Amino acid sequence: MRKLFSLAVLIGAFSINASAQLTIHIQLSPHLKGPYTGKLLVYTLSDTAQHFGNDASENEAAFSITVNNWTPERTITLSESANFLNKRMDELADGYYRMIAILDTNNSERRKLAVGNLYTRKEEVAKVVKGKPTTVNLVLNFAMEEQPFKENDSTKMVKFLSPSLTSSKNKNTYIIAGLFLPPSYHKDKKRTYPVIFINPGWGGTHYHAMYDKVRELYGVGLGLEKIYVFLNPEAQTPYGLHAFVDSRINGSWGTALVNEFIPYLIANYRVASNPKLHFLTGQSSGGYGSLWLALHFPDKFGGTWVTSPDPLDFSNFTGVNLYKDKNFFFDNERKERGFMKVNGQYRTTIRKVVQLERFEGEGGQQQSFEAEFGIPNAAGRPIPLMDNQTGVIAPSVVNAWKAYDMALYTVAHIKELKKLAGPVYIYVGENDNFSLNESANAYKAKTAKTGLNIKVITVPEADHFSVRNAAMSKEMQKEIDAIIKSVQ
């Protein structure tokens, strides 16, 4: 599941006029020559004691407009007819507002701060008083650049051109990963190593290989020497994480990983060729992706450890039964479904979160599911699971998703899954913030009598983010080491 979104930014050369109350002049800095085409997103924050943090708030007003061929010489006026979230511009209550904006020009990756997108470094504050004109001058002055990957003897970046994905997408498409190599790698040039593939959750990329704290979280360096491969599930996908799942929209990333990327690592980085020495682990969306890989390629991995996976059983999809419920936003008593539970209390609702994502454009968590599990429309985009305004669920889309319901898949493929080369462990927190423990336990109930080497473990008092910790990873490494010793 996604975490909440980071913008410490400002705005560029447009005018926003709210019934003569508010005018925001947005300009491009002269050094940003353009021309730029994309979606301009303008965010507000009514509590000026706060600053914009990990995510735009689903409770605040925001506005958007599509920009074409924008250059510094041009000032554009965003009228009251602009797309809005929660409130139109002329509905803003009197008070002070922080404002930021971003111009989303990158149509190949989901992140608002993806390479090439423009933003302002500074938050501006405007005072809105009905009947009194207020003018704010903002400048888009920064373009996101690609983060450098800092290589050394232990840490390497791999950018592998996938033949199958390139062919199917008709453009160069890469599997990108960060490798962390063991201490003896450069000393013993003939030695091969077991490998652990790390499939991260929302916001995780190959850059995680560079960071000590992230490596520690996955137990890197504990026990027997291994190569660690930090996968990037966000590369070249505008609709959210592909999670290395074969998708009718994103493409066959899982097959490319197994049939192309792993042989490349064996040939070029001395990864052991025995699939029983290939291991999977993943968190959240990457947890679902790791389980999907283990179940669809049962003889290709020696063991799988996942934490807080995205919904495994679609009869409980973040609290919604996709097979029985009619509405994604409201329960049968027309009560809004809560979302993001913290200390027993919901912070927001599913409706608000989905509508914020739809407002922002491509690549939110819900669209990520729709691209991962669903089918494309005539333009190749994911068909929505529900009506964006009413929340009414589309039965035809649910039917298309069934192939990705891991409970249904497991029960239907028991014979093939007897080939599992190693154990599968699924860890969920008792207090998962997105009710993913309930989905995992529904999966457990349906698969309990299959006799498969799959275990679902509920961790008392843990939430979505605290299930995976140093202690859990230490235990995982012990279990992996035991398998390695039994194979070698």
What descriptors fit this protein?
3 domains; Rossmann fold; 7-stranded antiparallel beta sheet; alpha/beta; Immunoglobulin-like; disordered N terminus; 488 residues; 23 strands; 11 helices
Topology summary:
Elements: E1 14-17, E2 22-28, E3 36-45, E4 62-70, E5 76-78, E6 83-85, E7 95-104, E8 118-119, E9 124-128, E10 134-140, E11 142-143, E12 155-161, H1 163-169, E13 174-180, E14 195-199, H2 212-217, E15 227-231, E16 246-247, E17 251-252, H3 253-269, E18 278-283, H4 285-296, E19 303-307, E20 338-342, E21 345-349, H5 350-360, H6 365-373, H7 395-401, H8 406-412, H9 414-417, E22 424-429, H10 436-447, E23 454-459, H11 470-487
Parallel strand pairs: 1-5, 2-10, 14-15, 14-18, 18-19, 19-22, 22-23
Antiparallel strand pairs: 1-2, 3-4, 3-7, 4-6, 7-8, 7-9, 8-11, 12-13, 13-15, 16-17, 20-21
Helix pairs in contact: 8-10
Signal peptide: 1-20
Keywords: Signal
Protein name: Putative esterase
Describe the protein in words.
The structure is a single chain. By secondary structure, the chain is an alpha/beta fold. The protein has three domains: about 15-145, Immunoglobulin-like (Sandwich); about 155-315 and about 405-485, Alpha/Beta hydrolase fold, catalytic domain (Rossmann fold); about 340-400, no CATH class. Helix content is about 25%, strand content about 25%. It has helices at about 165-170, 210-215, 255-270, 285-295, 350-360, 365-375, 395-400, 405-410, 415, 435-445, 470-485; strands at about 15, 20-30, 35-45, 60-70, 75-80, 85, 95-105, 120, 125-130, 135-140, 140-145, 155-160, 175-180, 195-200, 225-230, 245, 250, 280-285, 305, 340, 345-350, 425-430, 455-460. The strands form five sheets. Strands 12-13-15-14-18-19-22-23 form an eight-stranded mixed beta sheet, sandwiched between helices. Helix 8 packs parallel to helix 10 (about 435-445). The longest helix has 18 residues, at about 470-485. It starts with 13 loop residues before the first strand and ends with a helix. Keywords: Signal.
